[in-house]
Amino acid sequence: MAWMPDWAVNILVLAAAIGVALAAHRFLFRLATRLVSERQLFWRSLVQRTRGLIRLALIIVCLGFGAAVAPLNPGEAALLRHVLQVCFIALVGWVAMTVLHIWTTIYLRRFKLDSEDNLLARKHTTQSRILQRVAGILIVLITVSAALMTFEGVRQYGVSLLASAGAAGIVVGLALQPVLKNLFAGIQLAVTQPIRLEDAVIVEGEWGNVEEITATYVVVRLWDWRRMVLPLSYFIENPFQNWTRESASLIGTAYIYVDYTAPVVVMRRKLEEIAGASPLWDKRVVNMQVTDLKSDTMEIRMLVSASNAGRTFDIRCEVREKMIAFLQAEYPSALPRGRAEIEGRREERFGLEHAGAAERVV
Predict the structure, then answer these.
(1) At 230, is the secondary structure helix, strand, or coil?
(2) Nearest to 229, CA basis, from 216, 218, 237, 238
(3) What angle in degrees, to the nearest 10, is found between the helix axes of 309-330 and 264-277?
(4) pTM of the prediction?
(5) How far, in Å, CA of 278 to CA of 322, rounded?
(6) Cβ–Cβ < 8 Å for 306, 252
(7) What was the pLDDT predicted at 223?
(8) Which listed residue, 86, 236, 249, 265, has the most CB atoms within 10 A of its CB?
(9) Do residues 101 and 226 lie in contact, with contact meaning Cβ atoms separated by under 8 Å?
(10) What's the main place this protein lives (predicted)?
(11) How far is CA 123 from the centre of its chain?
């Protein structure tokens, strides 16, 4: 190729190096896919996840050999080495992110969020997801910083910035305060865990489940499928209710107001019967008490327990419906009668007043 100009030879050699890298990657990927086709899902997903990573690694290696063969002048050789250096730094960051993802996946395979008692699974899943996102942010920052430091102008700017770090540090700290605040709040949440994934919480007067915890915000899935998005710092600085902090089981409360003639003992036996026949009851707590006396009714509190917040809400509704149906069928006089009696007295007064007026007319 002595008759060809140097720039054409350089392009041809580098293009050939990239072609060899792509051909080698295609061959290796097909071979690896065949080898893991009958293995576990983990190995198949590992091959798919590392596909782009291996392609970039082969291109860097082949371009390195091509740079040694091509007749590059000093400027072109320096530029190509710089590009390969930046690509290698990006490759290392990509490898770190992949290793982090694989390690988290393997670690969380032992825990099942869809199990009946998933407290331990929610604890480890929340901790791992938050730390994974924080570590991912740090990996990206370090990778970008290392790549930028390969440029001479950025290195000089960094040195000059450090020389005047007094005022610049204050300005940057104030500008990044919300980001740093949520970042440290995420680390604190991962360690202390006031909330976990799928926790039942009440925030801003709304009931829902923690659906997602990112590096900066939390998504709460409300009972009517709306999503409430809150910053991580909210759960550090504000009070909120967590119904599944230590256990997913809850005691549900259902109130009913009845007449003073209501048979409390019979109603208590009926409540035990309703709970025993319900598949929602976890067979731990069932109780009935007269908790208050009004001027014309008794306030009766019924307690039933269930394995999680959703079941607790459903069994509360079931207890109310079946207890009202029982009283309507068996003891209708036990239902509140205040309004009917008031109407009766008003009609009676109206009749007396009408009779008196008739007598006066006569």
Answers:
(1) strand
(2) 218
(3) 130
(4) 0.53
(5) 11
(6) yes
(7) 86
(8) 249
(9) no
(10) membrane
(11) 12
DSSP, collapsed to helix, strand or coil, labels residue 203 as: strand
User: Each residue of 216-231: pLDDT tens digit?
Assistant: 789 999 988 899 999 8
Distance (Å, whole) CA 330 – CA 346 = 29
At residue 73, does pLDDT exceed 90?
no
Q: Give the tokens for residue 320.
A: 């109310």
Pairing of strands 227-231, 250-258: unpaired
How far is it, in rounded angstroms, from Cα 12 to Cα 1?
A: 10
**Closest by CA position to 253, among listed 329, 337, 327, 309:** 309
Which residues are bridge partners to 221 per DSSP? 209, 227
Q: pLDDT, tens digit, for every residue of 242-286?
A: 887 777 778 889 999 999 999 999 999 999 999 999 999 998 999
Q: Per-residue pLDDT for 75 more than 80?
A: no
What stretches of 109-151 show up as alpha helix (H) in DSSP?
119-148
The two structure tokens encoding residue 301: 């509190």
User: Where would I find the H helices in 221-337?
Assistant: 234-237, 264-277, 309-330
User: How many C-beta atoms surround the C-beta of residue 315 within 10 A?
Assistant: 24
**Residue that wins the pLDDT comparison between 225 and 362:** 225
- Mean pLDDT score of the chain: 79
Sign of CA dihedral 63, 65, 71, 73: positive
Compute CA distances 78 → 81, 84, 85, 256, whole Å: 5, 10, 10, 83
CA distance readout (Å), 128 to 107, 117, 131, 190, 226: 9, 19, 5, 8, 26
Angle at 334 between CA 326 and CA 332, to 5 degrees: 55
Residue ranges with strand state E in the chain: 200-203, 206-213, 217-222, 227-231, 241-242, 250-258, 281-293, 298-306
How far is the C-alpha of 215 from the C-alpha of 219, rounded, in Å? 11
Of all residues in the chain, the percent with pLDDT exceeding 90 is 21
Tokens of 127: 């901790």
Distance CA 139, CA 149 (A): 15
Contact 288, 274 (CB under 8 A): no
